[in-house]
């Protein structure tokens, strides 16, 4: 009896790829329902690309600068790379691009993102500084399905961390990042089981 095939996931990154690593390491477990078949970055020298290679995962860059202001043309090149590898689900993990409606529609219901705040609080950037400035007692991270509105899609998972007295944005970011690394593999596993089987 053959083992059931795993859902083919691509992880899109723009930087160090720490969440990608947590997803990829979780995928090594025999009972994980997904496998990371591609790591793609819009930044040619993103540190996460080397981390993917070290994990034995194909790593590709599609630099956005080559496309000027034509975001859709860049996304069509990204989409072509995903199609070449029969990708079924896309996980955004620090992919610092605002997506066009074209790509969102192509991957409707099959693309998830992780965001470093308790959405709907603090969409966009500088989430930790904003949480501290507001006097919040807790912060965290959210995983959501990607829709055309930035950080507005249906929430499929959250993790909360306390905001400590004297926290700087960097200190809070480190604690949130630890929560992200625990949460994302678990939620992605649940998502692919529900959406792909």
Let me know the largest β-sheet. 7 strands, mixed
Average pLDDT, all residues: 95
First-to-last CA distance: 18 Å
Relative strand content = 15-25%
Assembly annotation: single chain
What is the topology?
Layout lengths: L6 E7 L4 H10 L6 E8 L5 H8 L4 E3 L9 H14 L4 E4 L8 H6 L4 E5 L11 H7 L4 E8 L9 E8 L6 H28 L1
Parallel strand pairs: 1-2, 1-4, 2-3, 4-5
Antiparallel strand pairs: 5-6, 6-7
Account of the protein in words:
Belongs to the GART family. The record marks 151 as: Raises pKa of active site His. Residues 8-187 form the Formyl transferase N-terminal domain. This is Phosphoribosylglycinamide formyltransferase. (6R)-10-formyltetrahydrofolate binds at residues 71, 96-99, 113. This protein is α/β, with parallel strands linked by helices and 197 residues long. Helices cover 37% and strands 22% of the residues. A seven-stranded mixed sheet has the order 3-2-1-4-5-6-7, with helices on both faces. The two termini are 18 Å apart. The model has no long low-confidence stretch (mean pLDDT 95).
Task: Give a short summary of the structure.
The protein is α/β, with parallel strands linked by helices and 197 residues long. The protein is built from six helices and seven strands.
Relevant terms:
7-stranded mixed sheet; single chain; 6 helices; alpha/beta; 197 residues; globular
């Amino acid at each position: 009896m053959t083992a059931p095939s795993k859902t083919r996931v691509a992880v899109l990154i723009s930087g160090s790829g720490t969440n990608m690593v947590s997803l990829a390491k979780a995928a090594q477990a025999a009972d994980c329902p997904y496998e990371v078949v591609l790591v793609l970055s819009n930044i040619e020298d993103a540190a996460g690309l080397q981390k993917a290679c070290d994990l034995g995962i194909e790593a590709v860059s599609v630099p956005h600068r080559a496309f000027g202001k034509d975001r859709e043309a860049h996304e069509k090149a990204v989409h072509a790379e995903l199609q070449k590898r029969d990708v079924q689900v896309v996980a955004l993990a620090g992919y610092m691009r605002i997506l066009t409606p074209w790509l969102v529609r192509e991957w409707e219901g099959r693309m998830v993102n992780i965001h470093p705040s308790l959405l709907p609080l603090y969409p966009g950037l500088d989430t930790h500084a904003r949480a501290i400035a507001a006097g919040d007692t807790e912060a965290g991270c959210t995983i959501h399905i990607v829709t055309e509105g930035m950080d507005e899609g249906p929430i499929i998972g959250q993790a909360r961390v306390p905001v400590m007295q004297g926290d700087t944005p960097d200190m809070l970011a480190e604690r949130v990042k630890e929560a992200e690394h625990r949460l994302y593999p678990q939620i992605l596993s649940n998502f692919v089981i529900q959406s792909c089987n």
